[in-house]
Automatic annotation (TrEMBL):
GO MF annotation list: guanosine deaminase activity; zinc ion binding
Family: Belongs to the cytidine and deoxycytidylate deaminase family.
Protein name: Guanine deaminase
Record gene name: guaD
Keywords attached to this entry: Hydrolase, Metal-binding, Zinc
Start and end residues of each CMP/dCMP-type deaminase domain: 13-137
Superkingdom, taxonomy of origin: Bacteria
Organism, as annotated: Adhaeribacter aerolatus
GO biological process terms, semicolon-separated: purine nucleoside catabolic process
Amino acid sequence: MVLVVLGFICGMENTEAFMREAIRLSIEKMQAGMGGPFGAVVVRNGEIIARGYNQVTSSNDPTAHAEVDAIRKACAALGTYQLTDCELYTSCEPCPMCLGAIYWARPRRVYYANTKYDAAQFGFDDQFIYNEIAVPLEHRSIPMQQMLRQEAQVAFQEWQKKMDRQDLN
């Protein structure tokens, strides 16, 4: 199946090529010692805008996941914080943190190769995070305690008054 949209040929061949690039990155960067076996690319109008890969162990940064890396690079390259006209290709179904980044970036579609169950079989099990999100704060394994709410709300009130603010929704 081939679809011609705005002069670009968008078919299964291209989507598979973009996914193969994400998979290639996952293998290449893992073998180079950068981090876990995860790669991602952001595509706009049939062109790769950014490539990302897992750098958790090489950077000592637990947030340095492939999807977040690719999203950050794409947003910087395009000068925007929303990727509404882009697609994300990732070598594995996104973890909960990456899902959050994806929803904030708002790409129009996400393609993934491995599932979260595949990842779990090799030691990348995020199920405990899904479980934690589902329980009330007071029952989570990491204690959460609210404090100084009134003082902190000043920042929101000042944001609301700011004339040059860019709404993030």
